[in-house]
Specification:
Largest sheet: 6 strands, mixed
Shape: globular
CATH class of the largest domain: Alpha Beta
Radius of gyration: 30 Å
CATH topology of the largest domain: Chloramphenicol Acetyltransferase
Strand order of the largest sheet: 9-18-17-16-12-15
CATH architecture of the largest domain: 2-Layer Sandwich
CATH superfamily of the largest domain: Chloramphenicol acetyltransferase-like domain
Number of strands: 18
């Protein structure tokens, strides 16, 4: 019998572990070469795992198992015949003998009642007994152990109620409403986001500086040129391309804001790869638009649109998710008035956009109603001084309030 071992492949430099999210082929199925047999969920994407040979598939790992790179996932018996086809001639007598001598398999799997390593840990910590297994072959999964641990202990017998005094008021609590709870395993992407946010908060000397920008001139620019812009480029002129271009211009003028810490050195960049925060059903992703300083507004808008579609469909590649020297996040689309965005490691700064509100402002000695937006720049004080951060935000504000200077690059 010839057996091919299927092991977790190397996915990327930063990926050391994956989760087996689901099997695409059943245990014992005949699989063809390069046919997807299961899906892995990594920190950044979901990937299909193809068969490395044709034959009978045998599970080794179970769904929802966390596997290190190189861990054994399954085996493929390449000597087995494809169903409906002719068995190999040399193997036919052995197969016949095996069929005659081997008793029928027991209906109960040997895995029944046995916990996975993760489940065994939870069972020990909570002193659990008789945990029912819902995994393949009756195996006790991590989810089974978590549910058993979450079950409340049997309530003690209540003592007989004491008769209340006739004059004392009585109250009967209502019980006709829900008190239900549920648990759901965090996806690998959500766990990775959580770890990185905590790491960014704990490892960087993060501060935030604020300013506000009058959006009057940007509104006027978009109103005047929007139809012609759409007609020529097939995409709308949005706020994000204007903000990205303004930031890219100032980033090249102030390289400290565009730098990162690499060990005991500061790494500077002569380009602006701006990561755009995109909300997806699985969490927030920040793919970068590269060389924003060299793109026109239509190219920036098309790049952001393409990345957003891929992100929401789960089609972003690891390469498209990597890199970036600066990040822009727009909480204003959800109604945020002001916030302190958290750094996107290893970057040293992130700009937060917020909702636009009509507010009374003093303009040339007169009170006028203007569309105003608060801006927040969070930065790593190890790299960027306070005066540098304030100056950066003021320069971005000036470009946005006079977009003609941005267009003319003056």
């Amino acid at each position: 019998m010839s057996v091919v071992e299927m092991k977790v492949p190397t996915i990327g430099e930063s990926v050391t572990e994956v989760t087996l999210s689901q099997w695409l082929k059943a245990d014992g199925d005949y699989v063809e070469l390069d046919e997807p047999i299961c899906e892995f969920e990594s920190d950044k994407a979901t990937l299909e795992f193809p068969a490395e040979a044709a034959g009978i598939l045998k599970y080794v790992a179970a769904e929802e198992d966390d596997l290190e790179i190189g861990a054994l996932v399954a085996t493929i018996d390449t000597s087995a015949a494809k169903p409906g086809g002719d068995a190999p001639k040399a193997a036919a007598p052995a197969a016949t003998a095996e069929k005659a001598d081997t008793p029928a398999p027991a209906t109960t799997s040997a895995a029944a009642g046995h916990p996975s390593p993760a489940a065994a840990k939870i069972i020990r910590e909570n002193n659990l007994t008789d945990v029912a297994g819902t995994g393949r072959g009756g195996r006790v999964t991590k989810d089974d152990a978590q549910k058993a641990a979450a079950q409340p202990a049997a309530p003690a017998t209540k003592p007989a109620p004491v008769a209340a005094k006739p004059a004392a008021p009585t109250y009967t609590p209502r019980t006709d409403f829900s008190r239900g709870e549920s648990r759901k395993k965090m996806s690998r992407m959500r766990r990775t986001i959580a770890d990185r946010l905590v790491s960014a908060k704990n490892e960087a000397a993060m501060l935030t500086t604020f300013n506000e920008v009058d959006m009057t001139e940007i509104f006027a620019l978009r109103k005047k040129y929007q139809e012609r812009f759409v007609e020529k480029y097939g995409v709308k002129l949005g706020f994000m391309s204007l903000f990205a271009k303004a930031c890219a211009k100032v980033l090249l003028e102030m390289p400290d804001v565009n730098a990162i810490i690499d060990g005991k050195e500061l790494m500077y960049h002569d380009y602006a790869d701006i990561s755009i925060a995109i909300s997806t059903p699985n969490g927030l992703v920040v793919p970068p638009v590269k060389n924003v300083e060299s793109l026109n507004f239509a190219e920036v808008e098309n790049a952001i649109k393409a990345l957003a579609v891929k992100a929401r469909n789960g089609d972003l590649t690891l390469e498209e998710m990597s890199g970036g020297t600066f990040t822009i996040t727009n909480g204003g689309i959800f109604g945020s008035m002001m916030s302190t965005p958290i750094l996107n490691k290893p970057q040293s700064a992130i700009l937060g956009m917020h909702t636009i509100q009509q507010r009374p402002m003093a303009v040339n000695g007169e009170v006028k109603i203007r569309p105003m937006m608060y801006l927040a720049l969070s930065y790593d004080h190890r790299v960027i001084d306070g005066s540098t951060s304030v100056t950066f935000l003021v320069k971005v504000k000036q470009l946005l309030e006079d977009p003609t200077s941005l267009l003319l690059d003056v």
